[in-house]
Amino acid sequence: QVQLVESGGDSVQSGGSLRLSCVVSGYYSNRDCMGWFRQAPGKEREGVATITSGGYTNYADSMEGRFTISRDNAKNTLYLNMNSLKPEDTAMYYCATGRRFCPTPRPLVSGWNYWGQGTQVTVSS
């Protein structure tokens, strides 16, 4: 069984920064694609960013330039550095893995086998 545990969510002011982490455990392949997603109240879950095992990244248009996804395969950990946060970034953030190839051209929500429980990010104006 594969488990993903997110952490690092917090309440911050507009313009602030946060770093989210996602630790993966269990029987999974660190060659798989990994990704971050988010869901705001009353909205559908949307893709934030994905990263291949080799470090190739892909971002949703509204996050590119402000968010940076990275991974440490030796630590089985996925990261999301978020800068210049805006109130519209307020959401529950989820990590996912369990697909061999990252979706293109944008980080799609469908097709992931394993999801974490989420960590809450709240940005106030």
Write a concise synopsis of the structure shown.
With 125 residues, the protein is mainly beta. The chain contains no helices and eleven strands.
Average pLDDT over all residues: 95
**Estimated helix fraction:** under 10%
**Fraction of residues in β-strands:** over 45%
Major β-sheet annotation? 7 strands, mixed
Total count of helical runs of at least 4 residues:
0
Unreliable stretches, pLDDT < 50, 5 or more residues? none
What structural class should be given to the helix and strand makeup?
mainly beta
Report the strand count.
11
Would you write up a description of this structure?
The chain is mostly beta strands and about 120 residues long. Helices cover about 0% and strands about 50% of the residues. The chain has no helices and 11 strands. Strand 4 (about 35-40) and strand 5 form a beta hairpin.
